[in-house]
Design a protein that fits this description.
49% helix
């Protein structure tokens, strides 16, 4: 994202452009757990990730300890098919979680690949030679 694009892209959109939004799977569990090690309120994080109360309550009763509960919550989120680094970043930046530093680190560690997800340009943008692109 270039500085001149900031006039037409808001901050939440920038986060989504910069962070990988490919679906996360069970094979991503350990990296997600490592990335969220500072998040102690797994229940609130689960709510921010879109998990319903009844699923989180079941995890609360079935979990061995807080680490196990967080692991089970993340697995449930991944099983829902909506898990991505970008949605995790949004949840971490929410006022309820307020872990902006963690979100920024994820953005650095898991950048979006422009090869697979090109950033669309506005019609009135010009290339380096002044031609419309």
């Amino acid at each position: 994202v270039t500085p001149d694009m900031s006039c037409w892209i808001n901050q939440s959109t920038v986060a989504n452009i910069l962070v990988d939004d490919e679906p996360l799977t069970v094979s991503d569990l350990v990296p997600v757990l490592r990335a969220t090690v500072e998040v102690t309120d797994w229940y609130s994080l689960g709510l921010e990730l879109g998990l319903p109360d009844h699923q989180l309550d079941t995890i609360r009763h079935d979990g061995y300890d807080e680490t196990d509960r967080k692991r089970k919550m993340i697995l449930k989120w991944m099983d829902a098919g909506v898990a991505s680094w970008s949605s995790l970043v949004e949840a971490l930046k929410s006022p309820l979680i307020n872990k902006n530093g963690v979100a920024e680190q994820i953005t650095k560690d898991h950048p979006r690949s422009c090869i697979h997800h090109p950033i669309k340009r506005r019609r009135d943008e010009q290339d380096d030679d002044g031609r419309h692109v």
